[in-house]
Structures are given as C-alpha cells and as structure tokens.
From TrEMBL:
Residues 70-295 form the SET domain. This is Rubisco methyltransferase family protein. Substrate binds at R229, R233, D246, H261, Y294, Y307. It is found in: Plastid, Chloroplast. S-adenosyl-L-methionine binds at R229, N249, H250. PROSITE patterns: SAM_MT127, SET. SUPFAM superfamilies: RuBisCo LSMT C-terminal, substrate-binding domain (SSF81822), SET domain (SSF82199). PANTHER family: [FRUCTOSE-BISPHOSPHATE ALDOLASE]-LYSINE N-METHYLTRANSFERASE, CHLOROPLASTIC (PTHR13271:SF113), UNCHARACTERIZED PUTATIVE METHYLTRANSFERASE (PTHR13271). It comes from Perilla frutescens var. hirtella. One of its GO terms (molecular function) is protein-lysine N-methyltransferase activity.
Length: 495
C-alpha cells in the first residue's frame, strides 16, 4: 500500500498521502484497450485477403470480412486494419482530411447494458451493476461461439492486455511504493469480490443460463476488455463496446476528445438507426495510421491500469494527495463544518500534476487543518461564512510553518517508500531495452516521485519566505486603514 505518513498530535493536521479515490469502474471518454498482437490467436494457415496487411492475424482478417458482409465497412470506408507499432491499428487507405468520417457502426452492433438487459440473460441483469451485466453478457456470447452475432468480434479480441491488473507478483514488485500499486491491488480485490458474489448469487443458481464454467480469470478478462475498450461519455452511453471502432490507437498528438459522435443515419438498405461515428482528429496521408485521444485527464498511472501503456512525457505524471481532518483534533467538528460548507469533507483528494501550480483549495484545506492555538478564533461561528475565503491567504506564521513541515515530512516519507531513486529510474530509461511492462513501471514510479519532489520543493521555498509573507492580522489592519505606507501600525490619536 502506498500510503504514507499520518501526522496527528491533537490540533496538528493529519496528512495522508495515498491512492486516488478511484471508482474501480470509472471509465473514461473514449477508450480502447490493448490487445497485444502476441495475445491474439494466430494461424500460419490464415486465408489472407489481398487487401489487408498479410501479417494481420487470421482472427482480425475474418473480423474484417465480417464487417464487410454486415455492411459496416464499404468501399467508402477510408481505413483498414494494419500492423503498427502499437499492435493492430487502423491505417488510412487514402488521404483523409481533419474531421472526415472514418467509420460508422450501427447501433445494432453496439454492446452496452441495454443489450445485456434484453438478451437471454436479461432476467438476471436487472439488479446488477451495468459493467457486471455487460461482462456477463460478453462471457455468455463468447461461450455461444458460432451462435453469437458477435462471434468474429470476440474471436478477434485479445486474451488480455498489459494493464497492471494482469501483472505477475514479480512485475508488481517493480511498482512497489507507488499509488499505482495500491490502486491496482484495490481494483483487483474489488473485481474478485464482485466475482465471488456473482458466482454465488447469479451464476450457480442459474445453471440453465450459464451451462459453462466462468472462472475468475474469465471475469478478469471481461473486466479488462471493458476497462480498456469501452467508450463512454457519449450522449446516453456511459459504457459501450463498439466493434471496429476499438481498433483505433491513442496518440498524444491528438489534443481534442470530440472525435466520437452518436448520429442518425442509414443503417442498411431500407433502415435508419443511430450510428457511432468517428471523425479523424488529424489530417492523414494514405498509409498513415489514424489515432484518437483516449482521455486527456488520465494520469500515467490511470493509463497503465486501464490501457497498459503510458506516455513518456511528464504531462501525465501525477500524485494524489489525501488530506484528512483528524478526529482527535480538538476542533474537529468546526473544521468539518467549514470543510463541508466549502464543498469538501473530512477527507479531501487533490490531484497534483507535474509542472502545475498547487490548487488554492488544497492550500485552504491545509491551513484549515493546521488552524489552532492563537488562530483558533477564526473557527468561531461569527467567521463561519468568511473563514474559507480568509484561508486563501496565509493565516499566521505558525500556521504556514506547520503546513510546510507537515507536507514536507509526508513527501519525504512517501519518497522513502519507493525502492529506486529518480536518478536510478532515469538511468534505466536512458539505457533502454526495457520490456513494455518494465518501461511502464519505471515511468510511473519516476513520475510519482518527481511530483512528490516538486511538492517538497514548493514548501521548502515557502519556508524561506515565512518571514516575508503577509498574514491575516496584517491584512485585517490594512483593511481597517490602520497600517501606514511603511507597514507601521497607526494608533488612534486624540485630536
Ligand atoms: C483498442 S486497442 C487499439 C488497437 C490495438 N492496438 C490492437 O492491437 O488491437 C488499445 C490498445 O492498443 C495499444 N495502444 C494504443 N495506443 C497506444 C500507444 N499510443 N502506445 C502504445 N500502445 C498503444 C495498447 O495496447 C492499448 O491497450
């Protein structure tokens, strides 16, 4: 567990640095997976068509032919599957301008909770979480083989991804001390407990619906597919698998996220339906790969967990700081009240990104936690509506010094939990030749440490400024016109 120091003698703030409070199934905007080429079934006897890359696995080739048979792919479709550095991807067959339609997939091929609910397992889906009903649906359809409408799609799906949820214990050792490890373990525990419940309450009592074994590994496979391939944040669609669209890889060169749309249009000779449409975010020459942006807000740790790859630039390096009002704080009730009035709670989470300034709300919360001693008068009820605003600026030297000490000691404690230094990680990166998982581990652990180091540096510098900052009492006197131009206090003088 990557959680760190808790410092709480009464009336000092408690500060806990730990894993982001991430819902185990918070899917992002547009997202794909990792199917690694190595994970796909591959036969040397493939019947290869002349129009796709001859190295394409047979399963993907057959999926492509199926897309054509179904009319999802036509002569108008300007892309085809190809082998690319990211595994399989979609490659332009002719020049594509920015915003041109790249693909359209009619609603009848989408896989979402509504589809699970109206399927033959629908009777058991009503009480299930949406992602669990879709996971169960995937497993059922995969078992049906030839009888499933999506057979060729399932055959083309990979056996797994490079997500940290699939890493061996030895691989996980490479991320010891990181928030990524703690999130990964939390997600694994969550999926496992959902599996145990599902097996007991749904799978075993409904043998007629599930006349095949569903192992924990199967359930993890379905979870990983959804986590890495499902699209979300579409209008009315928070969790939807779109066969074909999920062959598109991610690039940091794409800096917008509005490439996926739900439109109405022709879906077959005589019918109209909703279509999932992707427009190209970039202009492309024939032969170039089409990319999208999976999610601008994800940290590298989120990317590693969801997709099994990270970006090597530092923009996605992040660390989540968890601050908590200690129940043993003598002003616990007042502080909690103030935190709640400002939309926070007894615990607050702040995502800190490399190279970005600290959020004002974090400084306010820290100052609140540290309030005590001669500053405690600010906690009185007459200040209740104003105190949060006062906390935007330093309150007193003692308060500001305390937050510096607490944050710096928490950062140091967090940094000591990693088994390598930033320099060691950088050396490994420079040497190269790392496996994809090790490169991810080194990148994430270096990133977290760089953010912690950055936070420590900010508070270290602040410590040197303590004598020069302006504190609450001075501001107050100024507001009342009681401080002269040189900072001297103006006393009342009788006329
Ligand atoms: C939906 S799939 C896209 C198609 C996939 N490349 C395939 O072989 O089927 C997403 C997966 O592709 C790979 N991928 C996508 N973008 C990538 C990138 N920029 N760098 C490395 N791998 C990437 C990752 O394995 C990711 O989980």
């Amino acid at each position: 567990m990557a959680s760190l120091s808790t410092i709480h003698p009464s009336s000092t703030p408690s500060l806990i640095l730990k894993t982001p409070k991430q819902h185990p199934f918070s899917l992002s905007k547009t997202k794909p997976t990792f199917y690694h080429f190595k994970n796909r079934s591959f036969s040397l006897n493939s019947v290869l068509s002349t129009e796709t890359d001859p190295k394409i696995p047979q399963t993907v080739e057959k999926f492509w032919l199926w897309l054509k048979d179904e009319g999802i792919v036509s002569a108008k479709t300007p892309v085809k599957p190809g082998i690319v550095p990211e595994g399989i991807g979609l490659v332009a067959t002719r020049d594509i301008s920015r915003n041109d339609v790249v693909l359209e997939v009619p609603k009848k091929y989408w896989i979402n909770p509504d589809v699970a609910a109206t399927s033959e397992i629908g009777s058991v889906c009503s009480g299930l979480k949406p992602w669990i009903s879709v996971a169960l649906f995937l497993l059922k359809e995969r078992f049906k083989g030839e009888e499933s409408k999506w057979k060729y799609y399932f055959d083309a799906l990979p056996q797994g991804t490079d997500s940290t949820i699939y890493w061996s214990e030895e691989e996980l050792l490479e991320i010891q001390g990181t928030q990524l490890l703690s999130t990964t373990l939390g997600v694994k525990e969550y999926v496992q407990s959902e599996y145990v419940k599902l097996k007991e309450e749904i799978i075993l009592p409904n043998k007629q619906l599930f006349p095949f074994s569903i192992t924990l590994d199967d359930f993890f496979w379905a979870f990983g597919m959804l986590r890495s391939r499902a699209f979300s944040r579409l209008r009315n669609q928070n969790l939807v698998l779109i066969p074909f669209a999920d062959l598109i890889n991610h690039s940091s060169k794409v800096t917008t996220e509005d490439h996926a749309h739900e439109v109405r249009g022709p879906a077959g000779l005589f019918s109209w339906d909703f279509l999932f449409q992707i427009r190209s975010p970039l202009s492309l020459k024939a032969g170039e790969q089409i990319f999208i942006q999976y999610d601008l807000n994800k940290s590298n740790a989120d990317m590693a967990l969801d997709y099994g790859f990270i970006e090597m630039n530092s923009d996605r390096d992040a660390f989540t700081l968890t601050l908590e009002i200690s129940e043993s704080d003598e002003f616990f009730e007042d502080k909690l009240d103030i935190a709640e009035m400002s939309g926070l709670g007894g615990s607050a989470y702040f995502d800190i990104k490399y190279g970005q300034p600290l959020q004002t709300a974090m400084l306010q919360y820290l100052r609140l936690l540290a309030l005590g001693g001669t500053d405690a008068f600010l906690l009185e009820s007459i200040f209740r509506n104003k105190v949060w605003g006062f906390l935007e600026m330093p309150v007193s030297r003692a308060n500001e010094e305390l937050i510096c000490q607490v944050v710096r000691s928490a950062c140091k404690s967090a940094l000591s939990g990693y088994h390598t230094t930033i320099e060691e990680d950088e050396k490994l990166m420079e040497e190269g030749n790392l496996s994809s998982r090790l490169a991810m581990a080194v990148g994430v652990r270096r990133g977290e440490k760089r953010v912690l180091q950055q936070i420590d540096d900010i508070f270290k510098e602040r410590e040197t400024e303590l004598d020069f900052l302006e504190y609450y009492q001075e501001r107050r006197l100024k507001d009342l016109g009681l401080v002269g131009e040189q900072g001297e206090i103006i006393f009342w003088e009788p006329k």
